[in-house]
Amino acid sequence: MFRLLNLELQKLLLNRTSKVLIFISFILPFFVILLSSLKINVFGFFTLELGELGIFNFPIIWHLTTFFASQFKFFFAIVVVSMIGNEYSNKTLKQNLIDGLSKKEFILSKFYTIVFFSFISTVLISIISLCIGLYYSSYNEISIIFIETNFLIAYFVKLVGFFSLCLFFGMLVKRSAFALAFLFILYILEWIIFGLFAWKFNSDTAEKIQNFFPLKSMYKLIDQPFQRIAMTKFPDKTNLVYDYAVHSYEIAIVLAWTALFIFLSYRLLKKRDL
């Protein structure tokens, strides 16, 4: 495993574009810290400081930061599809196979890299969340601080699943730009299918079916936190109540898609004439 990971890291770090994109993908989550210190001047009458509103209290901080950090995943997605595009354009894929690397090891090297960077990103966001929470939160009991750290697990699984999808599209079309375009096509396709099911049945049934789709299932791992924040400010508003928790079956769905994408990537490579 470490041999394959080291091989892939060497390729990425020798590529200037990849290094820049990796750097950006790791730096952007730190903008959550800027969000916590943001002060909004309301028409000169008073200053609204987000950090003082209680939205960075434990345990909601885990939900908030993982949701925002996951929005920056597209930068590393470019790195993932570029890994495949460069292999074909630079002929390094064929050379690696000639040098003794099996097709299975080639796909595993990409997957290990995805897992590695997803893990590093998860560690970074956990440190950021802990620091912001310890500074702003009104609660400092250990039981409260770590009660919802399962959002970190969901964040990690979400990244691995999404990047595995990018890997599959990269293997499918061999070109970075087209692979990223397929992501938007899939997004539109999922909503078209949702509309058809909503028309045929009803919106509730259509949404339940849509939650099994690749992109939607990944999004559902970490639901938007804004409604939850509103619930804390207006507890009497029962219409604001919704299910924001991380569920094991949601993680299982994304893991199943991840396994399928890696398997399909391997099958594509195995059958393709290089």
Summarize the structure.
The chain is mostly helical. It has helices at 2-13, 16-27, 31-36, 60-70, 73-89, 92-98, 103-136, 142-145, 150-173, 176-200, 203-210, 214-220, 226-233, 248-271, and strands at 39-42, 46-49. The protein contains 14 helices and two strands.
Counted beta strands: 2
Which series of helices and strands comes N to C? HHHEEHHHHHHHHHHH
Figure out the total of helices.
Answer: 14
Percent of residues in helical segments?
over 70%
The biggest beta sheet reads: 2 strands, antiparallel
Q: What's the alpha carbon Rg, rounded to whole Å?
A: 21 Å
Could you tell me how far the N terminus lies from the C terminus, measured between alpha carbons in angstroms? 24 Å
Please identify the structural class as seen in this structure: mainly alpha
Q: What average pLDDT do the residues reach?
A: 83
Outline the low-pLDDT stretches. Answer: none
Overall spatial form: globular
Major sheet: order of its strands? Answer: 1-2
Strand % is under 5%
Count of the separate structural domains: 1
